[in-house]
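In pairs, describe these two lines:
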Amino acid sequence: MSGPPGPPRYRGPRPPGSPSPVPFLRSPGGYRPYTPSPPPIASAPRRSMGSPCPLPPYIPCPTPRWPSPLPPGMPLPPGPRPYRMPLPMGSPMGSPVMCPSPEYLYSPYPGGEYVAVPLEPPGPLEDEEEAEDGPSTADIIASQSQDYVDERLAEYQATIYQLQDEQERVQKKTFVNWMNSYLSKRVPPLRVDDLIEDLKDGTKLLALLEVLSGEKLPVERGRNLRRPHFLSNVNTALQFLQSKKIKLVNINSTDLVDGRPAVVLGLIWTIILYFQIEENTRALASLGHTFGSASSLEGSRTPDHATESKRKGEGARRALLSWVSNALPKDIGLEVKDFGRSWRDGLAFLAIIDQIRKNVVDMTALRRATNRARLETAFDVAERELGVARLLDPEDVDVDRPDEKSVMTYVAQFLHKYPELRSDTGDSLTAIQNEYSSLTQWLTERNQYLQHLRQTNSLPNSYQEYAAFESEVQSRVELYNKLHRLVDSHSIISITHESWREIEKLWRQLQAEMRYWLRLLDSQLPPPFCQVGDWLARAEDLIESDDIPT
């Protein structure tokens, strides 16, 4: 019984045109897998000891080639199936028949050819944000050369130096003009042209202090002065300032003689703070109007010299700024917050000038002018009409960051020359200060007089003398009420609660002494008038003592 034909038997070497199977090929980017022909069977050919077994027909291996693109979603065709030898019908199921196994066993291909499909190698992982935004800042900095970094640093440092040089130039100019405005009053007058060089010998520095203080100071004079004479003059000036309880921070005679700009500018600024600002704000503080720190340059317990120096400047700055804020009219809507940009447009200067002397500037017309025009008008009118020396020019103020020390020095001249800006009642500072002092002195004297009479049991027994004294007190009631209205008012000149409490205490003390005097007079009346007088006196005492029984 014959069965179906078996696969062809291997009869020799493979034909020359038959390609060998293609294993996994190695590409430069990594392993790129292909779909190869079925691998060979490693077993050696075997034969049955009985009858030979026919070999299956030989099917050559297909040649791998690149495929055409597959339609999307189409699955890859299945791989080849192994060939199995069918058993002859009726053959026993005993021991297997040992047949020689061919090197390659194939079954017919279903449908088409099977080809190798290349796979793309996996690439590096990418950060989506980094890919969208580009390189990071660290990558940009790392990619820049050192020359580029040095160039940008040099530009930044050059800008800083330029601003420092401009600030120093404006301060030198302002301080020189300020010193000359005082040295011109001296007999004979002196003049400073170079702030650094002209102060090295100390003679003009001592002359300035003499004009400011009105005191005579010893000075080394002569045509052939040497360094020891310079040091002696400068030491005399520094000792004089220290005697005024002025703290000198990092200022010594050697640096001044050597002409160190920072030390010279610091010394002149300290002198301006004390003689130009502090002495004038003390007059305002005498009314109790606290402008920052009334004595910011005097006695300090702070050991830190840098902190002390800063506190001095801040105290004077607050005092002057508060004076300016009170001096400006409330109806023009102008607010001054500093001594820098608030003064750039020139309106603050014009408002102070108009407050000191009316109708010398046209505020309405100047509001439409440029900053330079307003500043030029303010400086010119202040010098010509008010006698305020011109320390600055418009180009020194009309900048992005005006020098605060220079602006403070110029504004302080208005406080020095015109501290008596009139209040809403039309009274000047001097007038109100004199009224405050006179009322305080009168109350003190009247209290001491009545206390002496009470202690010596010598109070007059005449109602006429009591009536005369009461009339004198009533004449002071109007002044008392006038000053009371200035307590923490929004006027240019005001009185704080601390200063007012001193007057109020003396006034109440005087009222108590007068009630005691009147009670003694009423006690001498015949009954029942004496009892009525005593009852009224007790009632008044309870009212004044704020201890009324309920």
